[in-house]
Amino acid sequence: MTNNPSGMSLIVKTITRLTVGLILIYGFYIVLQSHIAPGGGFAGGVVMALSLIHLVLAFGRDAVLKKISQINSVCLMSCGAIAFLVIALSRLVTKNHFTGVLLSDIAIATMVGAGLFVVFLTLVLFIKESAKGNKQ
Asked: Long-range contact list for 51-55, CB < 8 A, 24+ apart?
């Protein structure tokens, strides 16, 4: 059916192509509505990470690592953490605790989403390497 034997069947790959964008948009929606509705940066980041994990499960590890490397995900996670720390420190210095709520939610979503994706990729790489070690 396809030239790429890794990943799942053509049906799963097609459904994944259709749904990953919607899941990612829903994650952004949760983050952007966090100041007036339940949810927030953590919940939105988890949903966004799940959309990327969905890609890995459907297309395989190697196909996704060509587009989104683990190092880029770690850099994105670090940028989210640094942005959150800068926003939190500015809120402490100005003593205005209501400014930057949306920005801090976006920073938390970036940190959590990229962090969960990195943890998943690390586990996938670790399982792959330990399976190679057991065959030898």
From this structure: 51/20, 51/23, 51/24, 51/27, 52/113, 52/117, 53/116, 53/117, 53/120, 54/16, 54/19, 54/20, 54/23, 55/16, 55/20
Instruction: Note the pLDDT tens digit of each residue in 70-95.
Output: 888 899 999 999 999 998 888 888 87
Kindly tell me if the per-residue pLDDT of 3 is higher than 60: no
> Per the structure block, which two tokens stand in for 40?
């927030």
What global pTM score does this model have? Answer: 0.81
Polymer length of the chain: 136
Spell out the residues 6+ positions from residue 98 whose beta carbon is closer than 8 angstroms to its own. none
Determine how many CB atoms are found less than 10 A away from the CB of residue 13: 19
Q: In the chain, where are the structural domains located?
A: 10-135
